[in-house]
Amino acid sequence: MKRIISTSDAPAAIGPYSQAVESGNTLYVSGQIPIDPTTGKLVEGDITAQTEQVMKNIGAVLTAAGYSYSDVVKSTCLLADIADFKAMNEVYGRYYTEQKPARAAFAVKALPMGALIEIDTIAFK
Fold first, then answer.
1. Which CATH number applies to 2-124?
2. At 71, is the pLDDT very low, low, confident or very high (cuts 50, 70, 90)?
3. What is the C-alpha separation between 68 and 71, in angstroms, rounded?
4. What is the DSSP string of 89-119?
5. Distance CA 50, CA 36 (A)
6. Has residue 15 got a pLDDT over 90?
């Protein structure tokens, strides 16, 4: 059985997908880009500001589903420029201080809306 997760505290999907889907004890959070959910617009700023917004968006979806950052087991980080890896990593690391999840990070050619970063997440209870 699957449960679709939706919250106004995170950006609405910009395509035919759900913010997250829970199946059993596993939550699959769709890739989040740095959209401010109150304006629906990409946040301005560098990779630090954009990563912060992405992590807030992930947190809002986790909370709506009854999960937390401590339940995250895997993330995939997509960067428009791999040179932003260190700065992204600093922000990301503030959200996962203990029992850090598995993670992959890739440079990609482009991201939706010109974002500098996108992160998807899997959590388990």
1. 3.30.1330.40
2. very high
3. 5
4. HHHHHHH--SSPPEEEEEE-S--GGG-SEEE
5. 10
6. no
Give the integer Cα–Cα distance in Å for 112 and 116: 9
Q: Is the pTM of this model over 0.90?
A: yes
How far is Cα 30 from Cα 122, in angstroms, rounded to an integer? 9
DSSP structure string for 10-53: SPPPSSSS-SEEEETTEEEEEEE-SEETTTTEEPPS-HHHHHHH
The label of the residue with tokens 């996108």 reads 118
At residue 13 the predicted structure's pLDDT band, cuts being 50, 70 and 90, is: confident
Domain layout of the chain by residue ranges: 2-124
Q: pLDDT confidence of 99, banded at 50, 70, 90?
A: confident
